[in-house]
């Protein structure tokens, strides 16, 4: 087989066979096929797509390029969730303890942030001592003991995706539905859970710009799930503005804790309850949506959801006192109040730009090797639909260094005002079951 023939075929809009996809992935991981040829194939896929069968085969080849986690030693149905990423997205930190407190087994592998999107591992590491690297044995025994573990993806999981993602990042081929779907699903399938809930985001802070495109991506991932006999469902949610109010690692942990105490922002709480309901139904713990919600609200009210987070932090060597007393989490040296120079209703709040501004304060990384500052970030005080008077506080900016040049001007640009009353944007646009 010659790789150039695969490129030619995809260029001519023809589907690739299972054998050709096997040749591609094994050859690339072994280092036999050079980046320049794979780049050409990725660009051909970007323009000409892949059918459902090809996408499933590609996922299968990627999945078996490394270790596949065997969770069969954990009793009960194991559930997982995945968000396609966004700004202020601390969902795993609240949702996982909530569903675990209802009896679900959550064996969760998460990632780090890059660019304008944050990563769950960076957030949870704001808690002193918290260990994200665990052996498979520790991971499994923790989920058996307390129903919940949150760890980093092991280096041997889906090596094909590590190589391909790095290449896509520098060849403008990230935004392709079959490539995103196979990348995400190969990792989710390798992580071994029985059920998967996908939170597919759309909007300017997300990979997919429109809800229709997000739906298309969700359907591609659900089809891959069916190919592997997994129960995969998806939420389609809006990422045109940040989720919740906090953007930045320790600030998001605080907001996640508040949400577990029933004091979280309305939009974020709504997303956790909706996602949690689907997960409880997927695992058979709840018979219907109403019953699922009741169980989730109960574990918030009786403190069991927060207890689960505390148990996980204790099991992973983190400082439990910081969860019980969030004021002990890393604090920035200074908190600036940014007041409005305009008045009117907030019509838009640019998520992508706010994520980038938080990153520039030190909350995220520009390149993989950058350190993150757990304490810094932005806490929004006004969001879409709110009325703002001149001088009202728009946001609290937590800093450890003077603001970078133009930062404040750029921040003001993220708010768009109108004099007409505006409705709050709908957060959840669709649920694909
Ligand atoms: N997240 C992934 O893991 N892969 C993609 O391709 C896009 C988002």
From TrEMBL:
<keyword id="KW-0808">Transferase</keyword>
<dbReference type="InterPro" id="IPR036320">
    <property type="entry name" value="Glycosyl_Trfase_fam3_N_dom_sf"/>
</dbReference>
<dbReference type="Pfam" id="PF07831">
    <property type="entry name" value="PYNP_C"/>
</dbReference>
<dbReference type="GO" id="GO:0004645">
    <property type="term" value="F:1,4-alpha-oligoglucan phosphorylase activity"/>
</dbReference>
<protein>
    <recommendedName>
        <fullName>Pyrimidine-nucleoside phosphorylase</fullName>
        <ecNumber>2.4.2.2</ecNumber>
    </recommendedName>
</protein>
<feature type="domain" description="Pyrimidine nucleoside phosphorylase C-terminal">
    <location>
        <begin position="345"/>
        <end position="418"/>
    </location>
</feature>
<dbReference type="Pfam" id="PF02885">
    <property type="entry name" value="Glycos_trans_3N"/>
</dbReference>
<dbReference type="InterPro" id="IPR013102">
    <property type="entry name" value="PYNP_C"/>
</dbReference>
<dbReference type="GO" id="GO:0006213">
    <property type="term" value="P:pyrimidine nucleoside metabolic process"/>
</dbReference>
<comment type="subunit">
    <text>Homodimer.</text>
</comment>
<dbReference type="InterPro" id="IPR018090">
    <property type="entry name" value="Pyrmidine_PPas_bac/euk"/>
</dbReference>
<dbReference type="InterPro" id="IPR035902">
    <property type="entry name" value="Nuc_phospho_transferase"/>
</dbReference>
<dbReference type="Pfam" id="PF00591">
    <property type="entry name" value="Glycos_transf_3"/>
</dbReference>
<dbReference type="GO" id="GO:0006206">
    <property type="term" value="P:pyrimidine nucleobase metabolic process"/>
</dbReference>
<dbReference type="InterPro" id="IPR017872">
    <property type="entry name" value="Pyrmidine_PPase_CS"/>
</dbReference>
<comment type="similarity">
    <text>Belongs to the thymidine/pyrimidine-nucleoside phosphorylase family.</text>
</comment>
<dbReference type="InterPro" id="IPR036566">
    <property type="entry name" value="PYNP-like_C_sf"/>
</dbReference>
<dbReference type="GO" id="GO:0005829">
    <property type="term" value="C:cytosol"/>
</dbReference>
<dbReference type="InterPro" id="IPR000053">
    <property type="entry name" value="Thymidine/pyrmidine_PPase"/>
</dbReference>
<dbReference type="GO" id="GO:0009032">
    <property type="term" value="F:thymidine phosphorylase activity"/>
</dbReference>
<dbReference type="InterPro" id="IPR000312">
    <property type="entry name" value="Glycosyl_Trfase_fam3"/>
</dbReference>
<dbReference type="InterPro" id="IPR017459">
    <property type="entry name" value="Glycosyl_Trfase_fam3_N_dom"/>
</dbReference>
<keyword id="KW-0328">Glycosyltransferase</keyword>
<comment type="function">
    <text>Catalyzes phosphorolysis of the pyrimidine nucleosides uridine, thymidine and 2'-deoxyuridine with the formation of the corresponding pyrimidine base and ribose-1-phosphate.</text>
</comment>
């Amino acid at each position: 087989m010659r790789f150039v023939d695969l490129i030619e075929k995809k260029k001519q809009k023809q589907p690739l066979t299972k054998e050709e996809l096997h040749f591609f992935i094994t050859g690339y991981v072994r280092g036999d096929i050079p980046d320049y040829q794979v780049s050409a194939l990725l660009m051909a896929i970007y323009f000409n797509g892949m059918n459902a069968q090809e996408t499933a085969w590609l996922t299968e080849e990627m999945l078996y390029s490394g270790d596949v986690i065997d969770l069969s030693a954990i009793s009960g149905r194991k559930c997982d969730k995945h968000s396609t990423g966004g700004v202020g997205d601390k969902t795993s930190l609240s949702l996982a303890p909530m569903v675990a407190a209802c009896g679900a087994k959550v064996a969760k592998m998460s990632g780090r942030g890059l660019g304008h999107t944050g990563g769950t591992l960076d957030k949870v590491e704001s808690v002193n001592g918290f260990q994200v690297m665990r052996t498979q044995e520790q991971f499994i025994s923790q989920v058996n003991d307390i129903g919940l573990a949150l760890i980093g993806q092991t280096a041997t999981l889906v090596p094909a995706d590590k190589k391909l993602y790095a290449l896509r990042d520098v060849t403008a081929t990230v935004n392709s539905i079959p490539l995103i779907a196979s990348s995400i699903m190969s990792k989710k399938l390798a992580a071994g859970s029985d059920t998967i809930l996908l939170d597919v985001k759309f909007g300017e802070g997300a990979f997919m710009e429109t809800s229709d495109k997000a739906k298309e991506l969700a359907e591609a991932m659900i089809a891959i799930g069916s190919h592997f006999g997994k129960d995969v469902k998806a939420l389609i949610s809006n990422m045109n503005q940040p989720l919740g109010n906090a953007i930045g690692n320790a600030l998001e942990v605080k907001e996640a804790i508040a949400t577990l105490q029933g004091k979280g922002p309305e939009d974020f709480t709504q997303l956790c309850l909706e996602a949690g309901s689907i997960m409880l139904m997927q695992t058979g713990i709840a018979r219907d949506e109403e019953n699922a919600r009741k169980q989730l609200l109960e574990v918030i009210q009786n403190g069991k959801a927060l207890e689960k987070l505390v148990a996980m932090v204790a099991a992973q060597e983190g400082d439990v006192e910081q969860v019980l007393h969030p004021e002990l989490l890393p604090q920035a040296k200074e908190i600036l109040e940014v007041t409005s120079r305009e008045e009117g209703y907030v019509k838009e709040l640019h998520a992508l730009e706010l994520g980038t501004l938080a990153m520039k304060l030190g909350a995220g990384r520009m390149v993989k090797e950058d350190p993150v500052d757990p304490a810094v970030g932005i806490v929004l005080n006004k969001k879409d639909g709110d009325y703002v008077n001149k001088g009202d506080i728009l946001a609290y900016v937590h800093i450890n260094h003077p603001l970078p040049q133009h930062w404040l001007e750029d921040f003001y640009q993220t708010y768009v005002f109108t004099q007409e009353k505006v409705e709050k944007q709908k957060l959840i646009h669709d649920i694909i079951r």
